[in-house]
Amino acid sequence: MIEFARDIANGERDMVLIAGAEALKNQRHADRKQKELPDFSLNWHENFNQPLKIAASARCLPHRKN
Which sequence spans correspond to the domains of the chain? Predict the structure, then answer.
Protein backbone atom coordinates (compact mmCIF):
# COMPACT_ATOMS: atom_id res chain seq x y z
CA MET A 1 0.00 0.00 0.00
CA ILE A 2 2.94 2.30 0.63
CA GLU A 3 3.90 1.95 -3.04
CA PHE A 4 0.45 3.12 -4.12
CA ALA A 5 0.61 6.17 -1.86
CA ARG A 6 4.07 7.02 -3.22
CA ASP A 7 2.90 6.65 -6.82
CA ILE A 8 -0.11 8.92 -6.20
CA ALA A 9 2.11 11.52 -4.50
CA ASN A 10 4.54 11.38 -7.44
CA GLY A 11 1.73 11.78 -9.98
CA GLU A 12 2.28 8.31 -11.45
CA ARG A 13 -1.26 7.20 -10.56
CA ASP A 14 -4.52 9.08 -10.13
CA MET A 15 -6.11 6.50 -7.86
CA VAL A 16 -5.95 2.83 -6.85
CA LEU A 17 -8.60 0.27 -5.96
CA ILE A 18 -7.86 -1.92 -2.99
CA ALA A 19 -10.15 -4.92 -2.56
CA GLY A 20 -10.22 -8.03 -0.46
CA ALA A 21 -10.76 -6.77 3.09
CA GLU A 22 -14.34 -8.05 3.16
CA ALA A 23 -13.25 -11.59 2.30
CA LEU A 24 -10.59 -11.53 5.03
CA LYS A 25 -13.14 -10.27 7.57
CA ASN A 26 -15.56 -13.06 6.58
CA GLN A 27 -12.83 -15.68 6.97
CA ARG A 28 -11.85 -14.41 10.43
CA HIS A 29 -15.49 -14.32 11.49
CA ALA A 30 -15.97 -17.92 10.32
CA ASP A 31 -12.83 -19.06 12.17
CA ARG A 32 -14.08 -17.50 15.42
CA LYS A 33 -17.55 -18.98 14.98
CA GLN A 34 -16.16 -22.47 14.36
CA LYS A 35 -14.19 -22.27 17.61
CA GLU A 36 -17.35 -21.21 19.48
CA LEU A 37 -19.73 -23.58 17.66
CA PRO A 38 -18.03 -26.74 16.31
CA ASP A 39 -21.01 -27.52 14.00
CA PHE A 40 -20.96 -24.02 12.44
CA SER A 41 -20.67 -24.08 8.65
CA LEU A 42 -20.77 -21.47 5.92
CA ASN A 43 -23.12 -21.56 2.98
CA TRP A 44 -21.85 -19.52 0.02
CA HIS A 45 -24.64 -20.68 -2.32
CA GLU A 46 -26.49 -17.86 -4.04
CA ASN A 47 -29.72 -18.00 -6.02
CA PHE A 48 -30.63 -15.39 -8.61
CA ASN A 49 -34.09 -15.23 -10.16
CA GLN A 50 -32.67 -13.57 -13.26
CA PRO A 51 -29.26 -13.94 -14.91
CA LEU A 52 -26.65 -11.37 -13.96
CA LYS A 53 -25.74 -8.84 -16.63
CA ILE A 54 -22.42 -7.09 -17.10
CA ALA A 55 -22.67 -3.52 -18.30
CA ALA A 56 -21.63 -3.12 -21.92
CA SER A 57 -19.62 -0.04 -20.97
CA ALA A 58 -17.46 -1.94 -18.46
CA ARG A 59 -13.81 -1.80 -19.46
CA CYS A 60 -10.39 -2.09 -17.91
CA LEU A 61 -8.41 1.08 -17.45
CA PRO A 62 -4.61 1.26 -17.49
CA HIS A 63 -3.15 1.17 -14.01
CA ARG A 64 -0.42 3.74 -14.72
CA LYS A 65 -0.46 7.09 -16.43
CA ASN A 66 1.18 7.25 -19.85
Answer: 2-36
